[in-house]
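Something for you to look into today, if you have time. Could you write out one complete protein record for me, on any chain you like? The space below this message is yours for that.
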Amino acid sequence: METTRRGFLSAATLSTVGLVAAATSIGSLIPDEANAAIPAVPKPGSAKQEELEDFVYDIENGSEGFVNSGGRAKEATVEEFPVSQSIAGVSMHLNPGAFREMHWHSIAAEWAYILEGKVRTTVITPDGTTSTDDFERGDIWYFPKGHGHMLQCLGDKPCHFLLGFDNGHFSEFGTFSITDWVSHVSPEIMARNTGLPASFFAALPKKELYIGTGKIATDPRPKNINPAIPFSNSSHKFRLEKDGVFQEFKGGSLKKVSSLEFPIQTTITSMRMDIEPGAIRELHWHPNADEWQYVMSGKGNLSIFGSHGRVKTMPYNKGMVGFIKQGYGHYIENNGTETLKLIILFNSPVYQELSLNDWLSSNPPQLVADHFGMTLEQASSLINHKTGIY
């Protein structure tokens, strides 16, 4: 459960480099033969391409994950969820007194949304400043790539939060943890580095702690060992449920935050969306970002259009995640009896969307009528249809 997956990306990268190099070499020596081996781009009306790959994964039940007395973690990286190349996710639970030890991520920024309970974080930034913040349900945090941080259950009740990373190859179980590093450096070097006796470091377990337990964290926020270290001027905290950009529709609502509202969130836009029973999130696509979804509650169908007649619909429900590639058309239908609540991430600092309804209404009626063989009256009536969630 504590094994890392660092080799996965390296192997894939080396394999890709080798294939590219080989293809380049062949093409330069025998271009006619090499070009003949390259599949042609399908023409309109030609044979169908391969079917769309699965784009829904059960993050809560799909893998064993990590479990100890302090909590548990389940992840969805490209290893478990191959289609999600650009975004990885982790569902983490911490018990009272537990903490996700001090660590950093070399290849991904970290975003989080608090589902239940309270969490305290600490972070140190490259300018030498620090920040300690407390989070509750509906709050989000964002730590840029490489910033050292820690996550701690606050109070006497368990907490549950969703983590998102802007790289699908990232594994939470392959981070750079402080106990892993310190316990694998010679006690003599550690003694010289910290001033503590070498005997202390010699007695440490030679493994990563990952999730540890200690005294229950309470208010007020404690001071640092060195209180003279200045606090960061960059806010790592945003109250999405309270301060997110709100939009209400006939069939639901959403709250959104991008880098415009939360400047430190430079690689992700996040959203909370509610879709009422029987409603749909209209047909649309995102020209600038992939989309990653986590189902908080309810159930529905996620349907994706991938060009050349490729359409696929998959059901999902609480605890499952979905992924839509950049530019792929899609919609969501709530076919249950309770509100479908989603947490959504986009791998872009700004939000962009193109709606099928808006697109149709942005063209002359005769042109639209000619596309589908409808009457002018039918084409003109499209302006009356609601957009968004209805």
Remarks:
- The domain at 56-238 is CATH 2.60.120.10 (Jelly Rolls).
- The longest helix spans residues 6-29.
